[in-house]
Amino acid sequence: MSFSVDEIFETASMTLYQGLDIRTVTLGINLRNCVDSDFEKSKENVYEKINSNSKKLKSEAEKLETKYSVPIINKRVSVTPISLIMDSHSSEEKFLEMAEILDDAVGDAGVDFIGGFGALVQKGSTLTDEVLIDSLPGVLSETERVCGFLNVGSSRAGMNLDVIIELGDILKEIAEKSEKSVGCAKFVTFVNAPEDNPFMAGAFHGVGEPDFSLNIGISGPGVVREVVEKNEDCDLTELSEVIKRTAFKTTRAGELIGRELAERLEVPFGIVDISLAPSPMENDSVAEILEAMGVDRAGAHGSTFAVALLMDAIKKGGAMASGNVGGLSGTFLPVSEDMGMVEAVQDGALSLDKLESLTSVCSVGLDMIAIPGSTPADKISAIIADELSIGIINDKTEGVRIIPASGKKAGDVVEFGGLLGKAPVMEVNDYSSKKLISRGGRLPSSILSLRN
């Protein structure tokens, strides 16, 4: 894959003036060969494998930042779902010990986060899975860098309501145990979770992956916003073409760096995730793209249509640029991490219900949503079930990262700091669906699953 001089100069301009960056380089690591009947030996094996490779990831990524002058915002690691390596050592105390090992292994290497503390429970949960779920409040409140996930459904398997019922109480406990309820920001509930997602908090190294893989997530909301603003008079077909060409260029830049980093680490290159990932930084907002397209405020009527057009163009441009597009590859709408979204909520333009409709055409789902800490557990479970059912029926990845902010009420603001930003606490519907949710069981797989 060769790059022209014009492409290189154009990418440099995107980096210097429009906020293009590599949002994350994530090294996937298989831990299954670390298992030992002696738990102390298992912990030693896990620490050594993660720590040594994390140090190399950080060192080589920093060299590439200097070489190309493209910022790499986060260096991260994802590992085999932890439930799969703990069958012989299944107790809450040992899960917490393993989480602390994961935390220390990346912390000592200077890596930002480690994902994979989770389980695949789309059709049911094992005893080990249940112990892991019970350990989540302690793990996510007592570690700094460990991120967790549960995949509770798929279009093929349906959706596991029994686990979703548990999560209402689990999330409230995590919120109460962690400062500013930030532990909930490190946990995602998925359906149709991809095995090669480089973004936290939901990254894990899937069982179909090699021993190692290097996955990269690029981000350039500022780049897309600028080209949209420069083409304010064109029709929507032309606008789609402009966005598509921009996504092509940013994907090419991301793959160049991803492939070279993988070569330096002597691991296979996995995928480039083309998701538009906003941050609290100025001019790094997906909401501002929608407003540049022509809606007064994100959440106004027409916003879902605007996101659909944006997503289609981004995916077409990325798919044309690379044969290794993967992960989530959509648009993130994390309220707390996007200042335009925060302002839209505070202005009354964006509600929880409107966000749910936006997620039908974007990726990830309800992301970094703060709700009152007094919200009943069954209502939290119902919000999760509502959102994830969109993924089941539409055969797409969907996730929920929701924060029942302890001690906060609607209209308050929770300050997380850093890339997590700040979250306005959103109102939830006053009416209950407790009777429906308490039925439990499993949402049957969609008719769309009968494709063989």
Can I get a quick summary?
This protein is an alpha/beta fold. The protein has helices at residues 5-17, 39-68, 92-107, 127-142, 161-177, 221-229, 236-265, 286-293, 303-321, 339-346, 352-358, 377-394, 434-437; strands spanning 21-29, 72-79, 113-120, 146-151, 153-154, 158-160, 187-191, 212-219, 269-273, 365-372, 398-405, 413-415, 422-424, 442-443.
Description:
InterPro entries: UPF0210. Belongs to the UPF0210 family. It comes from candidate division MSBL1 archaeon SCGC-AAA259A05. It is a single chain. By secondary structure, this protein is of the alpha/beta class. It has a single domain, classed as Anaerobic Ribonucleotide-triphosphate Reductase Large Chain (Alpha-Beta Barrel), CATH 3.20.70. The protein is 43% helix and 17% strand. It has a nine-stranded mixed β-sheet with strand order 9-8-1-2-3-4-7-11-10. A three-stranded antiparallel β-sheet has the order 5-6-14. β1, α2 (39-68) and β2 form a beta-alpha-beta unit. α5 crosses α12 and α6 (221-229) packs antiparallel against α7. The two termini are 36 Å apart. The mean pLDDT is 90.
